[in-house]
């Protein structure tokens, strides 16, 4: 588990998250804010504008899939490398995703949580989630090292 994470606070808060909506918005924002990440999603069709990205059903579906995996990781905070070993292998060996993108997506997820939950997403919760998304990004990048 990442150092200093309040596991109870993270999991309790996560229970309020609508994974399909937050996943879609997080992946959508990643693709709009960091457009070079779109090269990994060429099969998704039109990603030429923010409206096209956010209206794209493949972006929505994959965003949910990404956060479903994140949910599984939250259940295994004590072994993130183990929890994400197969996804690390897939993204490294087959998809050749730049591991920096995992950090970007984690940061976007924190932004989306703050936007959606406002004052309920306290600075303390943000600090905990930042540690978790960093731990997940490091676990996903593990195969690269």
TrEMBL record:
GO terms for cellular component: blood microparticle; haptoglobin-hemoglobin complex; hemoglobin complex. Signal peptide: none annotated. One of its GO terms (molecular function) is oxygen carrier activity. Residues 1-145 form the Globin domain. It holds the Pfam family Globin. Gene3D superfamilies: Globins (1.10.490.10). InterPro entries: Globin, Globin-like_sf, Globin/Proto, Hemoglobin_b, Hemoglobin_oxygen_transport. Keywords: Heme, Iron, Metal-binding, Oxygen transport, Transport. The keyword Zinc does not apply. The keyword Transport applies. Belongs to the globin family. Heterotetramer of two alpha chains and two beta chains. This is Globin domain-containing protein.
């Amino acid at each position: 588990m990442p150092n200093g994470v309040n596991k109870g606070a993270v999991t309790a808060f996560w229970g309020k998250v609508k994974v399909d909506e937050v996943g879609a918005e997080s992946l959508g924002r990643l693709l709009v804010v960091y457009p070079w990440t779109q090269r990994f999603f060429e099969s998704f069709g039109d990603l030429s504008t923010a409206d096209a990205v956010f209206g794209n059903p493949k972006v929505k579906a994959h965003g949910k899939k990404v956060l479903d995996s994140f949910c599984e990781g939250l259940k295994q905070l004590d072994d993130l490398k183990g929890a994400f070993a197969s996804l690390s292998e897939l993204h490294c060996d087959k998809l050749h995703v730049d591991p920096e993108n995992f950090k970007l997506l984690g940061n976007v997820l924190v932004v989306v949580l703050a936007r959606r939950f406002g004052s309920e997403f306290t600075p303390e919760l943000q600090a905990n989630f930042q540690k978790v998304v960093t731990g997940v990004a490091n676990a996903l990048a593990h195969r690269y090292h």
